[in-house]
Amino acid sequence: MGSETAALRRVALVDARAALRGPEAIAAEWRALDWLAPPDFDRALAEQERFVAALAAQGVEVELLPPGDDVTLDALYPRDASLVFAGGVVLCNMGKAARGGEPRAAGRALAALGLPLLGAITGGGRLEGGDTAWLDERTLAVGRGRRTNAEGIAQLRALLGAGGPEVLEVPLPDWRGPNDVFHLMSVWSPVDRDLAVVYPPLLPRELRAALAERAIRLVAVPAEEFDTLGCNVLALAPRRCLVLAGNPRTRRRLERAGAEVIVFSGVEICVKGGGGPTCLTRPLVRH
Q1: Residue 151 Cα distances to 89, 132, 142, angstroms
Q2: Beta strands in 2-138 (DSSP E)
């Protein structure tokens, strides 16, 4: 029913030029959005071009989406605004108030690509896509923390229906307070059906048990590579993945586990905004 590691065929990114909008918008927003530093506009555009080229070289069809009008620099990370299922798109309801306009913009952009709307998280429900990932074909893990709440998870279950996938709720640690970018995929990235990258000190007990139950081998990210987003790994196909530069120990550990690793440099569009390769992408088709 779902996969994080089947061959990636089609993916949506948000156009960096439209999301960042230029040096003035960056200067006005980066502190309030809790970016670590202001991204250099021209370098950011060049990084996204190289990222798109790396995906295209793997046979991935890339759709560059407009971010919409009522959005901020954070729109660069489309993973969070929507979920894509076989039956259609679920629009999220952002836990970070400044990102409130992103789901509507994502809905319009994805509808223009021909994806039907399955539903939306509304009211007091909160759900962000970075808190969701497939454990196996029928089990979707959803992290409950500052960005995704119990009501949002309950609404997602209702939208998916009795015949839909099992939703495994995973309580997340409260790591660095309300302004930190902390999602489920901050500590866990699937690489194959039986291989995943994790950050052990923050791995929730419930998720650790679910991974062990499925005999999934764990590649541990060292402490010094957590803040450089070593745990945020984008699977391109089973045991083929894209890892952010600056994480050499994670790369070597993945390679020893039999994975092919492609390295991507993303200081401006990843490290400074706290969003790695999975955050930059909304997978549309995997098979």
Answers
A1: 19, 15, 12
A2: 8-14, 61-65, 82-85, 88-91, 117-120, 132-136
Its pTM surpasses 0.90: yes
Residue type at position 248:
P
Sign of the C-alpha dihedral computed for residues 207, 209, 210 and 211 taken in this order = positive
d(CA 207, CA 214): 11
Sign of CA pseudo-dihedral 143, 147, 151, 152: negative
Rounded (5°) CA angle 260-265-4: 45
Widest CA span in the chain: 50
Return d(Cα 203, Cα 184) in angstroms, integer.
9
Cβ atoms of 231 and 211 closer than 8 Å: no
Q: Residue 1's pLDDT is what?
A: 61
The Cα-based distances of 202 to 48, 184, 220, 254, 279 in angstroms read 30, 10, 11, 19, 19
- Residue 168 tokens, joined: 């495994």
Distance CA 196, CA 190 (A): 4
Number of helices and strands in the chain (H, E): 7, 15
Please give the span between the terminal C-alpha atoms of the chain, in angstroms, as a whole number. 10
Residues contacting 102, CB < 8 A, separation 6+: 67, 68, 71, 74, 75, 78, 80, 81, 92, 94
Token pair 């890892």: residue? 243
Alpha-carbon gap, residue 208 to 254, rounded angstroms? 19
Please name which of 268, 284, 244 lies closest in space to residue 16, comparing C-alpha atoms. 268
Helix, strand, or coil (residue 171): strand
pLDDT in tens, 121-166: 999 999 999 999 999 999 999 999 999 999 999 999 999 998 899 9
Question: 148 φ, ψ to 5°?
Answer: -135, 125
Q: What is the pLDDT of residues 16-58, one digit of tens each?
A: 999 999 999 999 999 999 999 999 999 999 999 999 999 999 9
